[in-house]
């Protein structure tokens, strides 16, 4: 599955694959990601009546977003191992830390999007109650932001380590340039997380939602950064097709 997922693009890759078969480390990682998906599943119990079914389906939107985010993390990790094929102790340590953060990150992630998709309401003994108070929202953004920052920093250090091992694994100059581009986008995303947390604690409570909306800058950040690096790459390495996998 890992190999097939990484082959979804038909464009020429700048970084050639150095690993084509999953290692034991990747197999273990897959098991952890599978467990994480299990933790965010809408419901493990089959609804007993239509009312239960309707209540269960309310969580579909939250599950879809959480599943998508976990898949993106898994895919980034998959591409890293396809590109570099590293199996050393430091890579295993960073990957283990990544998996740990993912598992800790699951419930805050699910809670955050449940609040968003369920209008901050849940039912208990027939009464409708708030899932979180206004005063706790900044802390929720802090918890989510720290997880987001940690995951991006771990990817940053994984790519940084791969670049340091460039001679050992045989990266050429173009591949090093590409690896640095990918490495630094993770650092940029970490900065976005820091700014979001800052917004959550600096603005009035009635405006704290802007801390969440600030994550929409991720898309433009990707576009601007890869656009800039693409133009620079064409100058440094002319006559080479640009593709960021």
Largest sheet: 2 strands, antiparallel
Whole-angstrom Rg: 20 Å
Number of domains: 1
- Strand content is under 5%
Please mark out the parts with pLDDT under 50 across 5 or more consecutive residues, or reply none: none
Q: What structural category do the secondary elements indicate?
A: mainly alpha
What count of helical segments does DSSP give?
Answer: 10
Q: Note the run of SSEs as H and E.
A: HHHHHEEHHHHH
**For the residues shown, what is the average pLDDT?**
87
Structural description of this entry:
The chain has one domain (2-236). It has a two-stranded antiparallel ribbon with strand order 1-2. It has helices at 2-6, 24-40, 50-57, 60-84, 89-117, 137-164, 166-169, 173-202, 210-213, 218-236, and strands at residues 121-124, 127-130. Helix content is 69%, strand content 3%. The mean pLDDT is 87. The protein has 10 helices and 2 strands; from the N terminus they run H-H-H-H-H-E-E-H-H-H-H-H. The chain has 245 residues and is mainly alpha-helical.
Give a concise summary.
With 245 residues, the protein is mainly α.
Task: Name its key features.
single chain, mainly alpha, 3% strand
Furnish the topology, listing elements before pairings:
Blueprint (H helix, E strand, L loop, with lengths): L1 H5 L17 H17 L9 H8 L2 H25 L4 H29 L3 E4 L2 E4 L6 H28 L1 H4 L3 H30 L7 H4 L4 H19 L9
Helix pairs in contact: 2-4, 2-5, 4-5, 4-6, 5-6, 6-8, 8-10
